[in-house]
Amino acid sequence: MSRLAAHSRCLMRIRLGSLAALSVPRQAFASCTSSSDSSLSAQTAFSTSVLALAQSKLAAQAGRAAASSSVVANRWQNDVIMVRYLIAFLFIVQGAAAQTVTQDEVMGGSAKLYREQIADLRSGFRLDDDERFGARVAALARPLIEQAKREYPESAAWDWELHTTTDGDANAYAMAGGKMLVSRAYVDQLALTDAELAMLLAHEIMHAVLRHNLKEFGEALRLEPERAKQPFQEFEHDIDNDNALMRKLASFNQRQEMEADREGLMFAVRGGWRPQALAGYFRKLAKHSHYPNFERFDHPSPASRWQAARELAAQLEAGR
Ligand SMILES: [Zn+2]
Hints:
Layout: H1 3-15, H2 19-22, H3 36-67, H4 70-97, H5 103-123, H6 131-151, E1 161-165, E2 172-175, E3 179-183, H7 184-190, H8 194-209, H9 212-223, H10 232-241, H11 243-270, H12 275-288, H13 302-318
Parallel strand pairs: 1-3
Antiparallel strand pairs: 2-3
Bound molecules: zinc ion.
Zinc ion binds near residues 207 and 260.
C-alpha cells in the first residue's frame, strides 16, 4: 500500500462526507498514515458547517416569523426543537467516534498473544533453543531496532522483544509493539545470507512501526462499521479467524505486505546494507516457492515481490 494511495482514499472519504459518514468510527480512517486526527477535525468542521447552515436558515425564518402570523411562529419553534435534536445527535455521534480500536488496545492484545506463543514454545523446549542462531539474529536485529527507534520515535517507548525458535511450523513475524519471532527452519530453508536475513527483519520491523495491525482493524471497521460495537477481544479473534472478514481484508493485507517490502528495503539501505544484496531475499523466496506466480491468501505472489524488489534495488543502486 503506498502512503499516497492510502492518503487519497481518505481524502475521498472526507469529500463524500454526509451525516451517515459522521457515524463512521474514527479508526475507519486509520489507514491514512498520521491522518486520523485530521479526519476527526474534518468531521468536526463538517458538523460545524451543518450547524451553521441550520442556524442561518433559522435566523432567516425568525425574521419572517416576526412579521407574519402565529402559525409561522409555531413552525419556527418546532424548527428550534429540531435543531436542538440535531445538535444533540451530532454530539452523540462525535462521542461515539472515539470509542473504537486504539494502538494501545492493539499492542496490549499483541503482547498477550505473543506471551502465549512464547510460553508454548518454552514448554516444548523450542524457545531460543539454538544459541548460535539466536546470537546471529540478535546481532543483525539490534542495530535495525535502534534505527527504528530513531526513525519512528513512537517505537522508542515500546518493549521490543525478539525470540528465535527451531520450531518448523513458525517462520517470522512482528506484532504490534515490536514483538518478533524468527524461525531457524525458515532461514535454513531459504539459506539466507546476513543481508537477506536483515531484509526479512526489516520487513517485519516495518509491519510494527507502520502500525499495520492497527490499520487492519481500521480497514475492518471501514468494511463492517457495526464491529465498532464488538468487544475488542472478539474483534481481534475474528480478524485472524473469521474467514469472511479475512477474505474481505486479503487485498488490503497484500498492499501492506508490498509496503513492508518496499519500506523495509529502503530502511535497511539507510542502515548501511547494499540494495542488491537485500533484494536477494525476494529472489530466494520466489525460487523456493512451488507456485511463484500465485498470490497466497493475504500475500502477493513471490514473483511480483521479487520483481518489485529488483526494480527498487536497481533504482537505489543507480542513485548510490
Ligand atoms: Zn509481512
